[in-house]
Amino acid sequence: MGRLPKIILALIIIFALVFAIIFFVNKNKQKQSSSPPSSSTAPPPQTETKKDLSNINPQDYTEVLNKNFQISQTKALEWKKNASFVFLRVQIPDDLNPLKVTETYVYDSPDSPLMYWTIGLNLKGDFLRALIYKNDFLQGENTKKIATQFWQIDWLTAFQKAEKNGGQEFREKNKNGLEINADLKCGEPKGYLYWFISYRALDSDENKVIQVDANSGEVIQPETTPSPQT
Fold this sequence. Notes:
With about 230 residues, the protein is of the alpha+beta class. The chain is built from 3 helices and 8 strands. It is globular. The protein starts with a helix and ends in a 10-residue tail after the last strand.
């Protein structure tokens, strides 16, 4: 083979390599352009509403609350066979954490003129029993026997109604510590069974009480005539 054909062959090989390189580069560019552009800004994190006593579903706690009441009755009858349920106080933490709630059931008996029998329970069913002198506890409160057939609204539902009727506003104005109680007892008007949700600011003694009918769930205003409890 002469020198000229060798030169021509070398040029053909060089052109082929250059063409292959150009084709490879163009193909990669097309792949990159067809890929969706990556965003340099991450989407803002989704903020989840904190679950507390103001927004949890009361029905999720129905079984727990019913079980606590049954425990209180069983233990009270071990104390006195004629024990009567007369009062319930639920202590609600100001951070509204369900794990910090304490329910205190109060029982009375004709055989116990000086003392109430009480049992405090948390929402895990742990309990502590105590006898308390009547002169030291519930002074001025109505401790008439509670007719449980009129107790249709649990304290959690009553508390959430209170929150929507001034309770939340009171909490937001008083952030330096609050005492919050939900008391189940007979009261006015008409001696019916009510929940009394009380808020007291620890730094000023400012307070607010919201009354909820324990039978109907109606929020009782000063001008409200409650529905008959029959």
